[in-house]
C-alpha cells in the first residue's frame, strides 16, 4: 500500500482526531475532565510520529513489499513454467502414444507380410519335398519293376529246374 501525499494528510488528521478523542474519553471515564491545550510538544509529537512512519516505511515496509512483489513474480513465472511443462508433457505423451500405435500397426503389417512370405516359402518347400518324394517314388518303382523283371528272368531260367524238382518230389522218382 503506497501512501501518497494527500492520503498521508488524511492519515495524520485521522490519527490526531483519534488521539484527541481517546484523551477526552479517558478524562470523562475517570471522572476528571482533562483539557488539552495544544502547545509546541503536540506538533513535535506529530512530527515524531510522521518521521517514525516514514523511517519504518523506508526500512521495513518497502523492502517487505519488494520481497513480496518479487516472490509473487517468481511464483507466477514458476506457475507459467509448470503450465508449459504440463502442455509439453501432454504433447510428448500424445506423440509417444501415437508412435506406439504406429509401431504396432507397422509391426502387425510386417508380421502379416512375414507370415505370407513364410507360407509361400512353406508351399515352395512342400512342393520341392513332394517333387523329390515323387521322383524318389518313381525311382523306387522303377527299381522295383527292374528287380521284378530280373527276378522273373532269373526265375524263368530256373523254372525248368524247379519244375523237375517239384515233379520228382511229387512223383517220388526222377523225371
- The gross shape turns out to be rod-shaped
Radius of gyration: 61 Å
Secondary structure: helix percent: over 70%
Largest sheet: none
Please trace the helix and strand order, writing H or E for each element. Answer: HH
- Our count of domains comes out at 1
What is the SS-derived class?
mainly alpha
Helix segment count?
Answer: 2
- In round numbers, the mean pLDDT is 83
- The proportion of residues in beta strands is under 5%
> Low-confidence parts lasting 5 or more residues at pLDDT below 50?
none
Strand tally is 0
Through-space gap between termini: 152 Å
Topology, pairings included?
Elements: H1 5-29, H2 40-171
Summarize the structure.
90% of the residues lie in helices and 0% in strands.
Describe this structure in words.
- The longest helix is centred in the middle third of the chain and has 132 residues.
- Helix content is 90%, strand content 0%.
- The protein is mainly α.
- The model has no long low-confidence stretch (mean pLDDT 83).
- The chain has one domain.
- The chain is built from 2 helices and no strands.
Amino acid at each position: 500500500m503506497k501512501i501518497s501525499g494527500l492520503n498521508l494528510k488524511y492519515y495524520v488528521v485521522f490519527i490526531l482526531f483519534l488521539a484527541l478523542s481517546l484523551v477526552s474519553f479517558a478524562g470523562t471515564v475517570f471522572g476528571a475532565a482533562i483539557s488539552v491545550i495544544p502547545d509546541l510538544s503536540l506538533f513535535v509529537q506529530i512530527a515524531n510520529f510522521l518521521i517514525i512512519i516514514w523511517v519504518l516505511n523506508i526500512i521495513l515496509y518497502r523492502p517487505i513489499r519488494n520481497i513480496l512483489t518479487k516472490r509473487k513474480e517468481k511464483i507466477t513465472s514458476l506457475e507459467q513454467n509448470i503450465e508449459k511443462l504440463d502442455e509439453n508433457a501432454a504433447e510428448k505423451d500424445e506423440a509417444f502414444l501415437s508412435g506406439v500405435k504406429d509401431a504396432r500397426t507397422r509391426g502387425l503389417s510386417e508380421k502379416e507380410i512375414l507370415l505370407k512370405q513364410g507360407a509361400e516359402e512353406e508351399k515352395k518347400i512342400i512342393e520341392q519335398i513332394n517333387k523329390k518324394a515323387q521322383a524318389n517314388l518313381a525311382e523306387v518303382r522303377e527299381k522295383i519293376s527292374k528287380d521284378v523283371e530280373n527276378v522273373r528272368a532269373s526265375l524263368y531260367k530256373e523254372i525248368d529246374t524247379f519244375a523237375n524238382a517239384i515233379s520228382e518230389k511229387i512223383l517220388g522218382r526222377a523225371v
